[in-house]
Amino acid sequence: MFETVLPAGRLGEPDEVAAAALLLASDTATYVNGAEWFIDGGYTSV
Q1: Per UniProt, what is one Pfam family of this protein (predicted)?
Q2: What pTM, to 2 d.p., does this model score?
Q3: What local confidence, expressed as pLDDT, does residue 26 receive?
Q4: Cβ contacts of 3 within 8 Å, gap of 6 or more
């Protein structure tokens, strides 16, 4: 039921959240600071 209000149309999978966490923990994100990332399928943009 909650999926109907998400722009993505579905709940996120654990591996999708893990991928974001791994990216932020990697050397790829060395220039990222003070940012908020919402891993919520677009819910906060509605």
Answers
A1: adh_short_C2
A2: 0.69
A3: 96
A4: 9, 10, 11
Evaluate whether 11 touches 2 at the Cβ level (below 8 Å): yes
Residue 25, both tokens: 């923990």
Query: What one-letter code names the amino acid at 4?
Result: T
- Distances 41 to 5, 19, 36 between C-alpha atoms, Å: 10, 14, 15
pLDDT in tens, the chain (46 residues): 788 889 999 999 999 999 999 999 999 999 999 889 999 999 998 7
Would you say 40 and 12 are in contact if contact means Cβ atoms under 8 Å apart?
yes
Q: What is the DSSP string of 21-41?
A: HHHHHSGGGTT--S-----ST
